[in-house]
Write a structure and sequence with these properties.
Strand content: under 5%
Keywords: 4Fe-4S, DNA replication, DNA-binding, Hydrolase, Iron, Iron-sulfur, Metal-binding, Primosome
Cofactor: [4Fe-4S] cluster
Family: Belongs to the eukaryotic-type primase large subunit family.
Helix content: 40-55%
Distance between the termini: 61 Å
Radius of gyration: 27 Å
Binding site for [4Fe-4S] cluster: 288, 366, 383, 423
Domain DNA primase large subunit C-terminal: 283-458
Amino acid sequence: MFNQRAVKKEGYPGEQTAVPEVVRRSRYPCRLSMYSDAPDVEVSIEEFETFALDRLQVLRAIEDAQLRAKGEDDMRKRVNEALEKHMPSHTNRSKLPPRQLVGERRKDHVSHFILRLAFSRTEELRGWFLRYECALLKHRFQNADLAEKQELLSSAQLRLAHLSPADRGAKLGNASSFYAQQEQLFEVDFERVLDLVGRSQVVLRAGRAFVPQSEVATLLIHEFRHTLTQALSVCAKALPQMGEDERLLPVLQNLSNQTARSEYQSTGAAGAVTAESVVGLSDSFPLCMQHLHSQLARDHHLRHGGRMQLGLFLKGIGLGLQDALVFWRRAFSAMTDDQFQKGYAYNIRHNYGMEGKRADYTPYSCHRVIMSNPPGPGDHHGCPFRHFSSERLRAALHKDSLPDPEVREVADLAQAGHYQVACTRHLELRLLHRRQNNQPQPDADIRLSAVTSPNQYFDLCLGCTKPAPPAAGADTASTAAAILSGAPKAAAAIY
């Protein structure tokens, strides 16, 4: 797809003529693209990395804007500033030289396909890239002029069935008044506009949705999402072949590691974590892990989803395998050693890469916690900001001694669907109150980048106030050795 040799100097035909004509005859006649065709151009290694990093900055700015912006206007401003800084894209009506216009579009085209390769490695990375590429296309489409929109819609081949005015009464009946101000309507399968269906912005009849022209962007994004999802799956299968090129693979891995959605890397902020020190550290846990930890202490058991979420979180903060076995054995005090060995010890060792395929599993990100299967009856995994009722969430926030106005602020963010923003604001308020207790003249407020992982939350909340964990005694070491060997000897003696 790419040739890594140096870029050839290209001459653009008719460079002295009108800009629109010159650009129209180039590889990139329109600044909006569905990225249907892979780039057949030569790029240098330097451009390869620079283009991708600049696009990554834009996607991360969109992520931050969605989480932190105060309204649509603020979000649009933030994204426009990021685009202007890292990936400007001017219209054909601008007075820029043709070479510059084509260069901007070449960078946009090439950078998309570089990141498509870099982010195809895992399902989580593919989901992150897909979400914010769709958001970028939607932003650009909404800010494009009519001619650009029509050109992109024409190239997208959306297969729209136009509903004539004569057919409106027959197909819509009394609902035709819903579209009284709409000049054009398109009839499509309702699966293509689930966003509009969820917001009750279209009329449904026999599985068909009637979309006004003003909402055609939803159809465009659906088509783009569908084709990009398939393309990312193809890239994931082809990615191992990139290992033959020692120049590109490190660049691609570095790009995917820079996103906030990449796998969490332990910082060791808590120092040496033992089975005994977990309780003391729990004051710095995020709300999801506090809930799991408290339920474990109450019921002496957690179902699989909760064990995975809490177990990998504890692994990420520094709890080693031996202490993890001791921690869980003590927590499951209502069962016998034989029950623990047969039902749970293997899974704990498996999470640490000591059983099965010996994969070194990483903690769950906020995205995975939020988007995974919701908790059912008896389950305690998931994100409280998404899965708790409003009353239950407010009660949990009150336990942190937050005043009523702050509880309402966080709960309102969660109710509006801004789960990570609510979690981040919860952390900001916790840190603010901690600072107010320690400083005579604390700052008026604290603002952080959006939290993207429970372990990141823990690291930020723990800060520089690391408690000194107690030394592990000989009983802990001997218990761990017994569990590791699979022999439930006299381990119960320490409970």
